[in-house]
Specification:
single chain, 418 residues, mainly alpha, MetI-like fold, 2 domains, two-stranded antiparallel ribbon, 71% helix, transmembrane
């Protein structure tokens, strides 16, 4: 048989075909970009831009340098120990006199008060006494300011000004982990009586870990039971698992307040059954926080585990049992390792959601049960210290990213071993 020869394609037709294919590929990419662009813009303006603004605000420090530019220059080179030169007092009086509105002085006073207690009244009192008579020498201005308020002789207020004489600062981030800058500008640990955020961060991780463990202990058996049921019954019961998603968190917390109070349904039931002689204290402590948070976050643990369990063939365990393995040993040695990806995903999801909780600990917990998000809200709504609030938010963001990176590394290690 003779070989069939294909007709030769003219060079011009080949070039037109290549151009047509290229135009088709560009059109496909353009359509794909047009379809994904709205989602990208949505994520950009609702997630990436706010996160960038949060991180930027955590290191911004505009209040002092904008309100006291001359004072900042006069303190350049000051050792931070002896009383500042008289020129610094004169520059301070000139800067306070140049403030246009009382709100500018208020912002300056609030910022310095976070560094040195009492600075708010000191700055506002001195601002109201401005301007000083013209023609005074630097020494006379110094004496006049000390006459207005003798606390200007205390170097801690001048140190607060000198430490914030830059538009960018790491002071907020340092304070969020219980560090600060000393009089010489070196980073040092805060005194023991001022170290608060380390304990709060540790408490946040502790509560989140407890909630994650309780959700795992409750969610794993339930997810396994659902995975063994026929699809119709499993879907029906899964609706009950998802019921909390259909109710506001605030409503659920209010319901737990009703149930857990001293005269609530839980204590009345236990007393009616003669299990206790007096009501338990279940509210405004760690117990109420854990119960409510586990109730809210339990579906986030069940769903990832259930989705993985549905993909595990039941024949594996039966095969292990048929080969002589005890049923319990077969379950833990054959079945459980195959569900670990779902366990890891559920635990990570629950833990990350838990470390940012605010409403539940605020309403059900006591003073020693408040998490880091409570103090972020405090700095935002009460103290109006956006820099500190953003620094604490950056700490939570960093913790979340570290946890996710650790999870990815562990998951990749498990895959490589598998």
């Amino acid at each position: 048989m003779s070989a069939t020869t294909l007709p030769a394609v003219p060079l011009a037709d080949s070039a037109r075909l290549a151009r047509a294919l290229s135009r088709g590929e560009r059109a496909r990419r353009t359509r794909a970009l047009a379809l994904t662009l709205p989602l990208f813009l949505f994520l950009l303006f609702t997630l990436l831009v706010p996160i960038g603004a949060l991180l930027l605000r955590a290191v911004q420090n505009p209040e002092v340098v904008q309100a006291l530019p001359r004072t900042s220059d006069a303190l350049d080179g000051w050792d931070g120990r002896a009383q500042p030169p008289a020129a610094a007092f004169a520059a301070l009086a000139q800067d306070l006199s140049s403030l246009r509105e009382g709100s500018d002085a208020g912002a300056l006073a609030r910022r310095l008060n976070t560094e040195a207690s009492g600075a708010r009244s000191l700055v506002m009192g001195s601002y109201r006494a401005m301007p000083l008579p013209a023609g005074l020498s630097n020494e006379a201005v110094r004496d006049k300011l000390l006459e207005i308020d003798g606390r200007w002789a205390d170097t801690k207020y001048w140190q607060a000004i000198a430490n914030n004489a830059s538009r960018w600062t790491a002071n907020y981030l340092l304070a969020s982990v219980d560090f600060r800058r000393g009089a010489d500008g070196a980073i040092e640990r805060m005194p023991d009586d001022q170290q608060v955020f380390g304990r709060i961060l540790l408490r946040t991780f502790e509560i989140s870990a407890e909630v994650t463990l309780l959700c795992l202990l409750l969610g794993y058996p339930l997810a396994w039971w659902l995975s063994t049921l026929p699809a119709r019954r499993a879907n029906l019961l899964m609706i009950l698992v998802l019921v909390p998603f259909w109710t506001s968190i605030l409503v659920r917390v209010a319901a737990w307040i009703v149930l857990l109070q001293r005269e609530g349904l839980v204590n009345k039931t236990l007393m009616a059954a003669s299990l206790i002689n007096e009501p338990f204290t279940l509210l405004f402590n760690r117990t109420g926080v854990l119960v409510s948070m586990v109730h809210i976050l339990l579906p986030f643990m069940i769903l990832p585990i259930y989705s993985v369990m549905k993909s595990v063939p039941a024949t594996y365990v039966r095969a292990a049992v048929s080969l002589g393995s005890p049923p319990l040993a077969a379950f833990f040695r054959v079945y459980v390792p195959q569900t670990l990806p779902g366990v890891g995903a559920g635990a990570l999801l629950v833990f990350i959601l838990a470390i940012g909780y605010y409403v539940t600990p605020a309403l059900l917990g006591g003073a020693n049960d408040q998490m880091l998000s409570y103090y972020i809200a405090q700095y935002t709504n009460v103290d109006v210290n956006w820099g500190m609030a953003c620094a604490l938010g950056a700490i939570l963001l960093g913790a979340t990213l570290v946890l996710y990176a650790l999870y990815r590394r562990v998951a990749q290690a498990d895959l490589s071993l598998g």
